[in-house]
Write a structure and sequence with these properties.
By secondary structure, the protein is an alpha/beta fold. 35% of the residues lie in helices and 20% in strands. It folds into two domains: 146 residues, Rossmann fold (3-Layer(aba) Sandwich), CATH 3.40.50.2300; 164 residues, Rossmann fold. It has a seven-stranded mixed β-sheet with strand order 1-3-2-4-5-6-12, sandwiched between helices. It has a six-stranded mixed β-sheet with strand order 8-7-9-10-11-13, sandwiched between helices.
Length: 349
């Protein structure tokens, strides 16, 4: 039977973790204490795009950084390799567990087969996986209500558009990204009464084709939507989303970021005035919450859902222009209330 523990509110707050600007690199470890096995704490294995994507992976790194600073232990973070197999992922997770890191987190659904294979072999290690559900007595599945944040993004897009055409760019055509699209479309439709058209496009059918790691693909998709009069483009495409934002800024139309508050990302500073908002997903808070639970000898396991009620998802308001668009903030606040009290049911497909 799947074990489902109580929803955690530990240290979870949207945008609660300031992202650390980093450059992409290989394996790294950082010492906050001694090198003994007992002093090793959180380790994360990155998803496609790696550290420096200014989005999903960097959010996880922010959680690692917070845990390292607070608990003063040794941490590790490891980059993916191009064209890697599930066997490669298994080896990576097993190596971290064998070295004594606890917890060990796989960032992204692609780690599901590897984690299922490895977790039972290291029963004294707590494993975490982001964006997927893996059954196991020592596994915490960190999942999010992405559709809720995307609904809010749709509300914002409907209020900001002047052309009555907005865009959605998904990295890979998979159920996870369908949640982003479904919530966004519903938010646009509910807010505009069906008057605003949504143009949707997926970059690739599989992650191996580069849908989450190709800014050039994102840029080309956004340019095509902008040619069709889209003046707000929302992207859920990992590293590829940087190309969407670049194209929007060049055309002087709005982009909506994802996962992290992309208005605040150093690498995106040249385009920030055109990043209206970001659909937030507190991956960093979830990673930190798992690390804290292990540190406190009360490891989380089972499905941990991070939704709007616990500030696990949300919408950023960093861009000053967010508050200047007529009716936008009021509409978003009303939608938040509706989702939280259950009067608005957000679709996932």
């Amino acid at each position: 039977m799947r074990r489902i523990s109580k929803l955690t509110r530990v240290a979870v707050g949207v945008a609660s973790l300031g992202l650390v600007a980093t450059a992409c690199g290989g394996t790294s470890s950082e010492n906050g204490g001694s090198d003994t096995k007992d002093d090793k704490g959180l380790a994360i294995a990155y998803d496609i795009g790696g550290k420096g994507d200014q989005s999903f992976n960097d959010a996880a790194y922010a959680g690692l950084t917070k845990a390292k600073d607070e608990f003063g232990y040794k941490t590790a973070d490891i980059e993916p390799t191009e064209g890697e197999t599930d066997a490669d992922k298994e080896q990576r997770l097993a190596s971290l567990a064998k070295q004594g890191y606890n917890p060990v987190v796989g960032v992204g659904f692609a780690y599901a087969p590897a984690m299922k294979a490895v977790a039972s072999k290291y029963p004294d290690t707590t494993f975490g996986i982001v964006d997927s559900v893996v059954e196991g007595k020592n596994v915490a599945s960190l999942v999010f209500a992405e559709e809720q944040a995307s609904y809010l993004a749709g509300v914002a897009a409907a209020k900001a558009t002047k052309s009555n055409t907005v865009g959605f760019v998904g990295g890979v055509d998979i159920p996870l990204i369908h949640k982003f699209e479904a919530g966004y479309k519903q938010g646009v439709e509910d807010t505009s009464g069906g008057k605003v058209k949504v143009i949707s496009q997926y970059l690739t059918q599989t992650a191996e084709e580069g849908g989450f790691s190709s800014p050039d693909k994102g840029k080309a998709a956004a340019e095509g939507q902008i040619e069709k009069k889209a003046d707000v483009v929302y992207q859920a495409a990992g590293l590829s989303g940087q190309g969407v934002i670049e194209a929007a800024a060049k055309a002087k139309v709005w982009a909506i970021g994802v996962d992290s508050d992309q208005y605040k990302q150093a690498a995106l500073a040249p385009y920030k005035q055109y990043i209206l908002t970001s659909a937030l997903k507190d991956v960093g808070g979830a990673v930190y919450a798992l690390a804290k639970s292990v540190h406190d000898d009360k490891p989380l396991t089972g499905i941990q859902t991070f939704d709007l009620k616990v500030n696990g998802v949300g919408l950023s308001e960093s861009n000053p222009e967010f508050g200047k668009i007529a009716g936008l903030k009021d509409a978003v606040d009303k939608a938040k209330e509706g989702i939280t009290d259950g009067s608005i049911k957000v679709k996932t497909e």
